[in-house]
Amino acid sequence: MTRPVPTHRIALLAFPGIRAFDVSVITEVWGADRTDRGVPAFELRRVAAGPEPVPMHGGLALTPDRTLAWLPRAELILVPGLDDQATPAPEPVLGALRRAHARGTTIAALCGGAFTLAQAGLLDGRRALTHWALTDLLRARHPRVRVEPDALFIEDGNLWTSAGTAAGIDLCLHLVRAAHGAEAAATVARSMVTAPFRTGTQAQFIEHPTPHTHRDADALAEVRAYALAHLDEPLTVTSLAARAGMSPRSFARHFAAVTGTTPLRWLLDRRIAAAQKLLERTDLPMPEVARRCGFGSEVTMRQHFTSRLATSPRAYRISFAEQPPPAQRR
Q1: Angle of CA points 11, 17, 21, to nearest 5°
Q2: Does the pLDDT at position 200 exceed 80?
Q3: Which DSSP string do the residues of 74-143 spell out, in sequence order?
Q4: Fewer CB atoms < 10 Å away: N or C end of the chain?
Q5: What separation in angstroms does the CA of 193 have from each of 196, 202, 273?
Q6: Is the pLDDT reported for residue 207 higher than 50?
Q7: Are 307 and 318 in contact (CB under 8 A)?
Q8: Which residues contact 6 (CB under 8 A, 6 or more apart)?
Q9: How far apart are CA 306 and CA 218, in angstroms?
Q10: How far apart are CA 300 and CA 310, in angstroms?
Q11: In terms of pTM, does the model score above 0.85?
Q12: What is the reported pLDDT for 204?
């Protein structure tokens, strides 16, 4: 028998003042049918307090297809950011968010959506973030929130918040990756023509986005390409810097300026991503997966998986390994 494809229920929470960009991101990630490419089927619903069109900036409007009564069915609730952070969410929306959190439903806010979660009181005593330009405002308006200054997205108590604009895409892809595996997230990213993997710990604001010379930019790009092709080798900052023709200190500084993270953290993220794909696509033994991805040993790989993904490689394979076509099953 063919294994049934599950449908995952997602709610886009709409009220006047939400950002059209965030609505578009949510719709693009969960609203498109990519089941022919191995992505699970999603049921994305536009949920509002009433059936009336929800006005947005620029003369746009979003037509709800469900009311707040549908929210208890949702497995994930997404809260778009706001065009004006002074925009209050209607009390019925805030009450629905409180009840959903009490039920244990995962809630994710994009960019200024953190202000809505804070208004509902859900972020009191919790870590959260928003667009770097709104960090001080979030602290001032909601002093009980533990506002983080440097990250792309974070989670605290089943509540996710993200930095500005493009970081909302990163959070959405991360949520797909966490629930359905790296390959599903990569497929969604490819269809959106966006980067498939940026970790939440990466800095959201980079003061110097490019090196000072084209030579430095080319050298750093070449080093990253080399590292991806040689993940099974013992790569160090010193060896990578030598390949770029820089001192280790200068290399680390330029690397962080371009990527928003350190060379070793970037390398670890890529090794984890490579291991995820091997665990999903192959039945290679764990020691061989660890060797090919440069972890050295299964123990080291397991430690990094546990630290970064809160699961073990074996548990990850059980959850996300590709199923063979029905004709190949016995």
Answers
A1: 65
A2: no
A3: -SEEEE--BSSTTPPPPHHHHHHHHHHHHHT-EEEE-TTHHHHHHHTTTTTTSEE---GGGHHHHHHH-T
A4: C
A5: 9, 20, 18
A6: no
A7: no
A8: 40, 41
A9: 35
A10: 14
A11: no
A12: 47
Tokens 């449908």 sit at which residue?
A: 7
User: Quick one: pLDDT at residue 216?
Assistant: 63
Provide the sign of the torsion angle of the four alpha carbons 318, 324, 326, 329, taken in this order: negative
Are 17 and 37 spatial neighbours (Cβ–Cβ below 8 Å)? no
Whole-angstrom distance, CA of residue 223 vs CA of residue 229: 10
**pLDDT at position 5, please?**
41
Query: Above 60 in pLDDT, residue 160?
Result: yes
Rounded to whole angstroms, what are the CA distances from 32 to 36, 43, 79, 187? 11, 10, 19, 12
Q: Looking at residue 221, what is its pLDDT?
A: 86
End-to-end CA distance of the chain: 10
Q: Go through 192-216 and write b for each residue having 16 or more CB atoms within 10 A of its CB, e for each that does not.
A: bebebbbbbbbbbeeeeeebeeeeb
Matching residue, tokens 């005593």: 125
Asked if 5 contacts 37 with a C-beta cutoff of 8 angstroms, the reply is no
Q: Is 23 exposed, middle or buried (0-12, 13-18, 19+ CB in 10 A)?
A: buried
pLDDT, tens only, 127-140? 999 998 899 999 99
> Pairing relation of β-strands 153-156 and 159-162?
antiparallel
